């Protein structure tokens, strides 16, 4: 299966539903501007991995993926409004190859556009009542609420680390944060939502978490690596942005722990500077330390280990599910999250 081709096809399908659901114009020019802002991030080149996992899970478990489309679309809209807010919180300059929404329009307007997308996400989920009934729709709502709670808790942990300038973190702390911040909304909930719509039993749904965590960790570590050493044109975000923001990535945590005392103090001084004061020399110093301590190679190895573990656990969890194109494609997606370059 050509994963990138599948993602493009599914994203096109989801985008059509998104653009038909979101308002595109209004007689009031100010509201018309809001609608343009709401369409901005969904119109940019994303991968659609989360919505695709939802669709694949549903079909793999003998569900009708057409009944899953609105939920997959809502997952993609969730990502859009969360990224608008995330870019503000991180002070990011670029998202998907373009200027971030708050730099284009101002922070207050961008926050409001994110809030408006949040509202439309729930509106789209309500459509499930007609095709799936009240009970299943209520379960979908419950899964979304849990997913959002996990994501916001993880985001708070990461932002708090930066704000308090923590250097006493270990790798397990990082994995715990990523489980909340990334794994639930990237892997676990999309797969569970597909299963809920397919009518899977609770035991199977609960087991999804076992491999979804490892897949999500592999995804986040690879994302961190792309921010350090990726191609900005392909990656679509500011390269070295995580360093400038002082993010406690796996590579940084490893470097702090494994470089000598003198180098450690230089590293701490550089990474502690506010974004507005950090120089290119500071950024290159941090990168040099990470390379010198083998931290980038360590992170790459860990991403691959988590991906391998996710594949093993996936086969265990779904051992009683017949082989299908969808089942194999999810396996391939696990590999894709650590081989992707954007």
From TrEMBL:
Gene3D superfamilies per record: Farnesyl Diphosphate Synthase
PROSITE patterns found in the cross-reference section: POLYPRENYL_SYNTHASE_1, POLYPRENYL_SYNTHASE_2
GO process terms (BP): isoprenoid biosynthetic process
Cofactor: Mg(2+)
A GO MF term: prenyltransferase activity
Parts of the chain that traverse the membrane: none
Keyword terms: Magnesium, Metal-binding, Transferase
Source organism superkingdom: Bacteria
InterPro entries with a match to the protein in the record: Isoprenoid_synthase_dom_sf (IPR008949), Polyprenyl_synt (IPR000092), Polyprenyl_synt_CS (IPR033749)
Segments forming a coiled coil: none
Family: Belongs to the FPP/GGPP synthase family.
PANTHER family: GERANYLGERANYL PYROPHOSPHATE SYNTHASE, SHORT CHAIN ISOPRENYL DIPHOSPHATE SYNTHASE
Protein name, entry field: Polyprenyl synthetase family protein
């Amino acid at each position: 299966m050509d994963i990138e081709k599948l993602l493009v096809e599914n994203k096109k399908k989801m985008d059509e539903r998104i653009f038909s659901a979101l308002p595109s114009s209004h007689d009031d020019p100010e509201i018309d501007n809001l609608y343009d802002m709401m369409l901005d991030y969904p119109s940019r080149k994303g991968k659609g991995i989360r919505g695709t996992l939802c669709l694949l899970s549903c079909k793999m478990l003998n569900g009708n993926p057409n009944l899953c489309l609105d939920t997959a679309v809502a997952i993609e809209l969730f990502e859009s409004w969360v990224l608008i807010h995330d870019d503000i919180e991180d002070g990011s300059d670029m998202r998907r190859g373009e200027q971030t929404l708050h730099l284009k329009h101002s922070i207050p307007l961008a926050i409001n556009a994110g809030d408006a997308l949040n509202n439309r996400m729930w509106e789209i989920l309500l459509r499930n009542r007609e095709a799936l009934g009240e009970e299943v729709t209520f379960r979908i709502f419950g899964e979304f609420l849990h997913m959002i709670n996990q994501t916001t808790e993880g985001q708070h942990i990461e932002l708090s680390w930066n704000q308090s300038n923590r250097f006493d973190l270990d790798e397990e702390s990082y994995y715990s944060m990523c489980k909340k911040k990334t794994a639930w909304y990237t892997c676990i909930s999309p797969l569970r939502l597909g299963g809920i719509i397919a009518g899977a039993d609770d035991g199977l749904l609960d087991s999804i978490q076992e491999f979804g965590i490892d897949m999500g960790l592999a995804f986040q570590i690879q994302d961190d690596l792309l921010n350090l050493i990726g191609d900005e044109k392909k990656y679509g975000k500011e390269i070295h942005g995580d360093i400038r923001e002082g993010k406690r990535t796996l590579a940084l945590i490893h470097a702090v722990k494994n470089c000598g005392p003198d180098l450690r103090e230089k590293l701490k001084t550089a990474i502690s500077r506010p974004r507005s004061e950090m120089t290119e020399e500071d950024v290159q110093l941090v990168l040099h330390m990470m390379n010198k301590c083998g931290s980038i190679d360590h992170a790459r190895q860990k991403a691959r280990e988590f991906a391998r573990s996710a594949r093993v656990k996936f086969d265990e969890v779904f051992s009683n599910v017949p082989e299908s194109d969808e089942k194999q494609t999810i396996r391939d997606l696990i590999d894709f999250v650590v081989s992707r370059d954007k």
